[in-house]
Amino acid sequence: MVKEEMEAMVLNNIAIRARNLYIGYDEGEKILWALNGIDIDIPKNTAYCIVGESGSGKTTFGNAIVGLLPPYVVTKGYLEIYNNKVIDNDRLNYSGIRGDIAVRIPQNPIASLNPYLKIESIFLDVLKHRFKSISREKAFEIALEAIRSVGLSDDVLNKYPHQLSGGMSQRVAIALTIAINPEIIVADEPTSNLDAYLKGTVLNLLKSIISKGKTLIVITHDILFASALCNFIAVMFMGSILEIGRVVDILTNPLHPYTKELIDAANLSYTNFKH
Ligand code: ADP
Ligand code: MG
């Protein structure tokens, strides 16, 4: 294969590419840099976990991917999503990407659902945004299929968000994402506030998303959950990526003391984890 062809193949296989990416929050007299020049290539069709302690910049990176950064951010370097430069130094352009190609599963599903709309109407709104001229019938069909795929019964569509339990709203949030059918899904701390049983359910739902050939980015401080779900792990610390590798390599041979600490804290060794 000629060199250009090989380069094109690699390029076409990358869902997310960051080069020397800085993202800061303008705090008036100074800028707080949440990302300090990160470089990463996230291939299509993988489950990629971003782990690290609170404040290390995980959510900022996730929001950069889905185009949900606040207006007062300061940016340098670049970020490409499906070969679109969404961040090019100080220019941001997410048209065609935000809400279509890259979508976030909300961290707090109950708060993210409009309390005055029935779940069916929430689906309709989201699907109208995604597929401009979709008919009501088609939207209902997609909503029904998505609701069933996360193990909820059809009557959930007829309920208001406050009538759902925490676990049900978590499933609705995932069903909404499935209905949008994006290429990249970012799940930010999908298991925080969940009990062990629901954690297992969410794990399986996210696994079913992966099996659809999507790129899944899971942000978590739970390296145990990450290792059960992901192919790759990137470890973040104070706005930088400390190390990136396949789950097996990171767990069996962590290079950085901080990564060892994360693994020790989870009391995890490769021998007691099965993929
Ligand atoms: P993590 O998700 O790993 O906890 P974040 O990306 O939320 O990390 O935060 C990284 C740093 O950026 C922290 O110091 C945090 O206080 C700051 N930060 C995050 N979001 C904002 C924001 N919207 N405005 C100002 N500072 C923020
Ligand atoms: Mg966070």
Helix-strand blueprint:
Layout (H helix, E strand, L loop, with lengths): L2 H10 L1 E13 L4 E13 L3 E5 L6 H9 L6 E9 L2 E5 L2 E2 L9 E4 L3 H4 L6 H12 L5 H14 L16 H15 L3 E5 L7 H15 L4 E6 L2 H7 L2 E6 L2 E7 H6 L4 H9 L10
Parallel strand pairs: 3-9, 3-10, 7-8, 8-9
Antiparallel strand pairs: 1-2, 1-4, 4-5, 5-6, 10-11
Helix pairs in contact: 4-5, 4-6, 5-6, 6-7
Give descriptors for this structure.
275 residues, binds adenosine-5'-diphosphate, globular, binds magnesium ion, five-stranded antiparallel beta sheet, 27% strand
Would you write up a description of this structure?
There is one protein chain. α5 crosses α6. A hairpin with a 4-residue loop joins β1 and β2. This protein is α/β, with parallel strands linked by helices and 275 residues long. The chain has a six-stranded mixed sheet, with helices on both faces. Strands 2-1-4-5-6 form a five-stranded antiparallel sheet. It starts with a helix and ends in a 10-residue tail after the last helix. It contains ten helices and eleven strands. The chain is 37% helix and 27% strand. Magnesium ion binds next to α2. The site of magnesium ion has 2 residues, from α2.
